[in-house]
Amino acid sequence: MKRARFLVCGLGNFGSYLARRLFEKGQEVIAIDIDDKRVAEAKDYVSEAVVADVSEREALDQIGLGSIDAAVISLGESRIDASVLATLHIRDIGITRIIVKAISQDHARIVEKIGAKEVIFPEREAAPKLADKLSTPHVFEQINLHEGYALVEMKSPNELYDKTLQEAPIRSKYGITVVWINRKTAEEKEVSVVPHPEDKIMEGDVLFVLGEEKAIEGFKKLRT
After folding, report:
1. Check whether domain 5-124 has CATH 3.40.190.10, yes or no
2. CATH for 133-220, among 3.40.50.80, 3.30.70.1450, 3.40.50.2300, 3.40.640.10?
3. Where are the beta strands (DSSP E) in the chain?
4. Cβ contacts of 24 within 8 Å, gap of 6 or more
5. How much is the pLDDT for 16?
6. Which sequence spans correspond to the domains of the chain?
7. pLDDT, averaged in runs of 10, over the chain (224 residues)
8. What pTM value is reported for the model?
9. What is the DSSP string of 34-85?
């Protein structure tokens, strides 16, 4: 399978992590930054690292950016003007998928108007996830699916201990379904159980529940 080719502009924390991760996944990554120290460090984990000012069209032309599948622009707060110019130049070069890390709503609106296909706010996106993790430590993972549904891995709630799935008000009250149970045996071995109505929920069980996000939010509030 042909490798995708990505351009990452800006090697701060976000840009460097992204470039490294893409490269580890077997993709071709061209990384650009104005800081020669950052570029020197990046040479160990990208296909090509270049010292250049992405706000200058001539500098981008000299690199040669043909056949780029997507460009990610991740410049610091002090370089919003450079981010805007880079978006404009990269669009004019012919790269159609441009993703910009925005600093503010105004910044986002500007880059969207001049060619950015996607705008991201990593801090805003990470904060709700961290808040959920801190406020519901009994929830190990949540995968949001299509059309408002989610799959959640969580500890079994106290009030459901020793109740069968048929007795517990999981479906009748919350409208969600337990699709899988991970349980430790007396020998401390972890086993996976395909649940049946007569199966009891035990202390220490890890439940995998599927349902509408709103219903799952209510279920997550049960004490564990």
Report:
1. no
2. 3.30.70.1450
3. 5-9, 28-33, 48-51, 70-73, 98-101, 118-120, 139-144, 149-155, 177-184, 190-193, 206-212
4. 45
5. 96
6. 5-124, 133-220
7. 89 95 95 96 96 95 91 90 96 96 94 96 84 80 84 90 90 90 84 88 91 88 74
8. 0.68
9. S-HHHHHHHTTTSSEEEE--TT-HHHHHHH--TT-SEEEE---GGGHHHHHH
Scanning the structure block, which residue is given the tokens 């490269």?
A: 23
User: Cα(first)–Cα(last) distance of the chain, in Å?
Assistant: 46
The residue type of 95 is I
The pLDDT value recorded for residue 123 is 86
Closest CA to 15 of 66, 113, 83, 69: 83
- What's the confidence (pLDDT) of residue 74? 96
Burial degree of 127 (CB within 10 A; 0-12, 13-18, 19+)? exposed
